[in-house]
User: What shape does this take?
Amino acid sequence: MSVTDTSTIGQGITVNRSGQTGAFGGELLTVNFGPHHPSTHGVLRLIVELDGEQVRSVKPVIGYLHTGIEKQAEALRWQQVVVVTDRHDYLSPPINNLAYALAVERLLGVDVPPRANALRVIMSELTRLSSHLIWLGTSGIELGAITMLMYCFRERDRIMDLNEEISGFRMHTSYIRPGGVFADATPRFLEMLDVFVRQMPGYIDEYEALLTDNPIFRSRTIGVGRLSAEDAKRLGASGPMLRGSGVAWDLRKAVPYSGYQNYEFEIATSDMCDCYGRYLVRIKEMREAVKILRQALDRLPDGPVNVDDRKVLPPPREELETSMEAVIHHFKLFTEGYSVPPGDVYVAVESGRGENGCYIASDGTHKPRRVKFRSASFVNLQALERMALNHLIADMIAIIGTADTVLGDCDR
Amino acid sequence: MIDETLVVEKGVSAGDAWITVEPANVHRSLSGLKDEGYQLLVFLSCVDHLADASKSWPARYELLYQLRNMDTKDQVRVRAFVDGDPPHIESVHDLFPPANWDERETYDMFGVVFDNHPDLTRILMPDDWVGHPLRRDYPVGGEVVEFSEEHETWQTAPEKA
Amino acid sequence: MGIDALAESLGQNILTTTLGRIVGWGRGNSIWPAQFGLACCAMEMIDSATANMDLGRFGSEAFRASPRQSDLMIVSGRVSQKMAPILRTIYDQMPEPKWVISMGACASTGGVFNNYALLQGVDKIVPVDVYIPGCPPRPEDLVNAIMILQERIKAQGFVTRQ
Assistant: This one.
């Protein structure tokens, strides 16, 4: 069956008889989970071959959200690219910013001050919480637990309020930039964060009370979507897909960045290798994120939040009134932008989905030569076929949910 | 172990170790590195060095394979330079399953043909798209915005790439 | 619906004010959106449907999965070249009367991305009633857009877009 068969596009589930025979002598049905579907978490198209109700093969078709972000980044200046990095994995924008900012700083050879690192860790962990909350809410509602959506988005709104307090934006903050962060944390932000961190463990207990011992949730997720540790490593999975199969690999511990080595937290793993195991992993990751936030908030160092290099970041506005050099730097930065020395570098960070990385190649000019985003969802989605084989079609929903793919990240 | 005779050049760029190999030896080099412990192919991509004046490049398309060793936490980047219209190189999907979709994306965006790939079709653009968008001589496209010179120049292929 | 047949038989000569107002009030207060969340704006759309903003109080309690049961399409997110024919198909599958809200900068004009891969505005393929700027717009912006749309629907009465 060719992929260009447009007769079934957008029709939700339709049936094409492909003529092959199944295990009981019936025909194999080819079913199209079209790009417009309530449960595919975005515009993912799956071409599924069914033998009765059992899945015999799954073929994902992506590209319905291809935005040309990498081409757009080649047409923008280095500091403008931060804005488009927000938008590929749209559940965790600050983490994408962090990958890009770390890569540019490595090529430039600058180090950010400790307060900037602590603020970056705070934003990353808040984003990890927000991403897992959205995952929990949407996966819950697809398996029938409608209350989960309401509970999780209630907390996500509080994280959005925190984002707005520190950067002015709810979602696409563009807060973490090469050279530091956008602005210092206000006292009001620190108070709001303190209250949030104290209340969050209670909320996570509420979510667990709804789902963890729920017989319906357990029967829909235990034993469903099995991915052994060897398969997970062979297929290049990362994040909760890998840790849910028992492999203790977390980039924050293995290749620490932004001062993560100074915080105490555990890697969440589970030996169950199925959807329920990954659910437990993500719940534990939420608790660990709260722990890291508490430590970062208590030990927030004082000092500047931006590197003191006028070639990279503009001077403060008061200086423009007195110093000619400051005016020239400001002008240069906002018309042409800074140039990054030639070379290439790859930096990976741990996002809610797994390893999200940014590879940049510079040719010495003020625009990038190539910006490539290594997307965890792109690689994790290839494991879908392995996880879904011989399951029932209703289990496909649980399996797509557990993979936690963001199609913006996949298609870029 | 990777055969040292296969390595054309090696170096370190901003803390990242890299080696350059001939395109014909890519499969052998990656196989050797995989036996050494670099079991994870982090990503596979391409850089187009058309009109790149920063140094003299052996060929136009640079293919990159980033490998990681999960036990020793080391990483290495393998580079191969290919030319041609379209450029050809051997596929490594049998060594590393994640390379399957990465190679389809590189074919879609740059036009690099991977020999022995099971299903080399477009993955991100519609199937009947003409052209390879991430090549430097492909225009950015989009719409002209009034009073914006920048957006005007995005409509045609750049002369200086 | 029989009202349209009645309107045709009455012709253009009779003003139907009270009946039109009742129909407009009914349609405006029971808008059922089709789920068409594409990208980041979909997150804010879901946010406006949950407990904090609660679109349910405007009559949009159920976001229908099938376009054949809905009358509003909220295009929330960027529309790529591959997705454009599908969006048009879904729009065609919706029964009359139908409305479209283009949520966010990407759906309205192409947004941050001015390149080969995106449709520079969804109004190139479907007629749009309300545009919401923002990247992404706040949930309050979406609620505001639905209220503006409700005013339009109530003012239209019987006769919708020809």
User: Anything to note?
Assistant: Chain B has three helices and seven strands.
